[in-house]
Amino acid sequence: NAGVTQTPKFRVLKTGQSMTLLCAQDMNHEYMYWYRQDPGMGLRLIHYSVGEGTTAKGEVPDGYNVSRLKKQNFLLGLESAAPSQTSVYFCASRTGASVGEQYFGPGTRLTVT
Amino acid sequence: AQKITQTQPGMFVQEKEAVTLDCTYDTSDPSYGLFWYKQPSSGEMIFLIYQGSYDQQNATEGRYSLNFQKARKSANLVISASQLGDSAMYFCAMREGNTGGFKTIFGAGTRLFVKA
pLDDT tens-digit profile of A8-48? Predict the structure, then answer.
């Protein structure tokens, strides 16, 4: 039981390049989330999904797209990376129960130069 | 819109003493949940404790307790008998139950330093 995994762990991009971050969970969770963490700002919600085939915008969705084609996977895409997207990205998942806590992945450190 | 505020960027506590980390929240939804997470220097997010808006008693989990004051909209984390391993960032978070699509929103965090 791996929990929540994220691929890759580190990445350096040049401005304008694209990439996809993969989040996978093996706990059969309904809800999945993408956050970014910047110094002094805590975790900010980018996008989230309440089930396979559904996605919704969070607090800071601009510049990102997501897809949830399979229940266990939640992909975060950057179509044209910008230096402002340099951050640590966390994926999380949880059950559909209202009291369920989120289980987090280890994070992806992305640097855009 | 929901909002979480942690006003203490950093806190110091002597080993074996208790410490309170402040968290205030704002929501118009009567159904919500409050969470605390710990992030050590290694970076992972560790769930500590949960309090539901309808819970009558304050939540406790080992050395962690949540001082829930609903009228004041505060959900402070109390760590008793601090240990060196408690040095970390601590985040308060809230999830609205009826609105907001079950999003979980986090505060900016408090960095706790435990002194030997």
Answer: 999 999 999 999 999 999 999 999 999 999 987 789 999 99
Q: In the sheet where A19-25 sits, what is the strand order?
A: A4-7, A19-25, A73-78, A65-67
Q: Which of B50, B105, B107 sits opposite A101 (nearest CB)?
A: B50
**Burial letters B53-89, b for 16+ CB under 10 A, else e:** beeeeebeeeebbbbbeeeebbbbbbbeebeeebbbb
Distance CA A62, CA B68 (A): 35
Whether residue A102 and residue B103 make contact (CB cut-off 8 A), yes or no, is no
Q: Among A25-29, A106-110, B91-95, B97-101, name the one with the lowest average pLDDT.
A: B97-101
- Residues A44-80 have pLDDT tens digits of 999 999 899 999 999 899 999 999 999 999 999 999 9
Using CA coordinates, name the residue in chain A closest to B96.
A98
Q: Does B52 touch chain A (CB under 8 A)?
A: yes
Q: What share of chain B is helix, strand, coil (3-state, %, to 5)?
A: 5, 55, 40
Distances (CA, A) of A44 to A48, B38, B80, B93: 11, 16, 29, 11
How many other β-carbons are positioned within 10 Å of the β-carbon of residue A105? 27
Chain A contact set for B6 (CB, 8 A):
42
Specify whether the CB–CB gap between A111 and A13 falls below 8 A.
yes
Instruction: Point out the residue among A98, A99, A106 whose CB comes nearest to the CB of B44.
Output: A106
